[in-house]
Amino acid sequence: MYGGIKGVETMEIRILGTxxxxxxxxxxxxxxxxxxxxxxxxxxxxxSLHACSIQIEEIExxxxxxxxxxHCFGLPFLLFNMFIKRGSSLPSQSRLRLIAPPGVRxxxxxxxxxxxxxxxxxIEWVLSTFEIIEIEExxxxxxxxxxxxxxxxxxxxxxxxxxxxxxxxxxxxTFIATSDTRWGPAIERLVQRGAKLLLCDSGGSKPGEVHMSxxxxxxxxxxxxxxxxxxxxxxxxxxxxxxxRLEYAKAGxxxxx
Length: 257
Fold this sequence. Notes:
The chain has a single domain, classed as Ribonuclease Z/Hydroxyacylglutathione hydrolase-like (Metallo-beta-lactamase, Chain A). It is 23% helix and 24% strand. It contains 7 helices and 14 strands. It has helices at residues 45-51, 69-72, 75-86, 104-115, 121-129, 185-191, 214-221; strands spanning 12-17, 30-33, 37-39, 61-63, 96-100, 130-134, 141-143, 147-153, 161-167, 175-177, 197-201, 230-234, 246-248, 254-256. Strands 6-5-4-3-2-1-14 form a 7-stranded mixed β-sheet. A 7-stranded mixed β-sheet has the order 7-8-9-10-11-12-13. Strand 9 (161-167) and strand 10 form a beta hairpin. The radius of gyration is 18 Å and the shape is globular.
């Protein structure tokens, strides 16, 4: 457990995995915010949730930054298990949420149908139970649990969004996750928002690749970080050793900020 001040309201970031498409056997890249918000649903999402003792019943909002398989191919299995465990017991007035890039409803119907069958009842349960929200750039979304979210496009294909999260009443974000991206002005603007914790794609091996490299993070990001901010690398394959201000997230890490 890292950070946090006793008696002060904090945001809880739990790292479930750090691996990307190229993978050495690590849990895939995903994390939770304040237990109820799950960010990314990679193929091994059920295993990584179990490894961190997170119950499916705790999850109220699912957020997907983009439609690459290592970020979303576990969604059918997660939703099926939510249907089995919560379908008959969920209060009628309750509303779960799924937040993802534009086109998510059609994309999701196709993916869920391919995973089991297009006429399975859990698909209709999902579509009728979840509030399905398409991400809009720079729009603020307020969640019932006192958390707000904003999104900014990254330099990645398909359309991918960085995630900014803050507590209601605070104008500045507490936490930022760059999502998958190469280096560019959009990421520089994110850094200038001044979050206490920055979870940063560090999957590249050299500058100019699809993902930011550690060298780019050290050259472009760290000099602009406030002194009291922390930066964590994620979405990497293989073991990496923290170096100076650039630390590397590990599955199971818990940050209170």
